[in-house]
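Note to self: keep these together.
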Amino acid sequence: MTATITAQEGEALYTFVSTVCKEIGPRMPCSTAEARAAELIKAEMQKTCDDVAIEPFTCAPGGLLGWIRIDIVLVAISFIFYLATPHVLPGTAGIALYGACIALVLAAWVITWKQFFSYEEFIDRFFKKASSQNVVGRIMPASEITRVIAFSGHHDSAPRYNLLEYAGGVGYGVVILWGFGILGLWTATLLVAALQSIMGADIGETNEFSAWLMVIGSPALLILWFFKTSSARGNVVPGAVDNLSAVSIVIAIGKYVRAHPEIVPENTEIRLLSFGCEEAGLRGAYRYVEAHRDELKNENFQLVNMDGLQSPKSFMIFSFEPTTRTPHDPRVTRNLIDAAKGAGVEVHPFGNHLQDKIAGFFSGGTDAAAFSKEKIPACSFGAMDVLKYVNNYHTSRDSPDRIEPGTLEAALRICLNYIENEKKHG
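Structure:
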């Protein structure tokens, strides 16, 4: 049986997104607007849940992408050291300075890998801490709880990504590849120069090549310095697709389950989660897992996370997240695919093929990764027409009208069918 979504229920999904965008507006991580959104979501959950709580936490919202400017400084210093090497400190001291240059760029690589490609809080200690919050709603069974099915989204919105705002998806891709290309070539050049210096070989051609790299690379570093606007001036992203679209589904699940309790398996709690600070590096999801790790691992828990619901023709199940190299639970992934098929929604698994891993390498992570990294069963799905999505992503253009008709209803049917299938198959 596929859940039937009435026209009124469907309209309520879009109304919620529009209401938050209009009454609260952009909600950067740890902002007062993010906190106001959490209170609004709590009020909505209280209409349907047996227990609702706001769980506060602290994090460093500037940490996730703070590595960009740190890396730029490290690379710029290595440029200066390299230029000084043959003229100021010849011989052994010069070789040592080459070593310092190499150490600087290797430090840049380590910071990038840890902070972005692993979503660790590697340099967060150097950034200001602030408060955020998760919202947790629980719909309890009449008897003992032996299973928890959770659904989640995030209520914060990103600070403006200036590259995407002003250069669009193509410009964004060009500058990102330009920056990483320069960093890779500069690392290789330093290694060659150091080796030539140790061997006493002529490094004239290497110096000439390095000069060209500095000329070509400096504009990329300058542009990347202004990658995003973290101050209040950057709090202009409505965050409708990313990710009020998902929160609207989380709230609607509560309403439907309260009205139709017969779809829920026996002894099963339905848990509704709205995370803060996803745009700061999944910090809300990480804090939730940290606070409830033992409970989550012992209560037959499974999570369906949603992120970026924009197009009804572009549903994707994220079986693997390329940026953080995080595989999701095979059973939850398979059950999500089955739920989508049963709901009449065409979906495409994303993440396991080579082209997916290449395309998704710089795309970032979803809140499900915080669970899957701890081996807690979880998976994410989204609905993104990539060419349209990327030009609105993390910009002032991510407004409610970007969500195409039929998208949210389809997402809700998938989630409700997921619950029904769990009851059917045990």
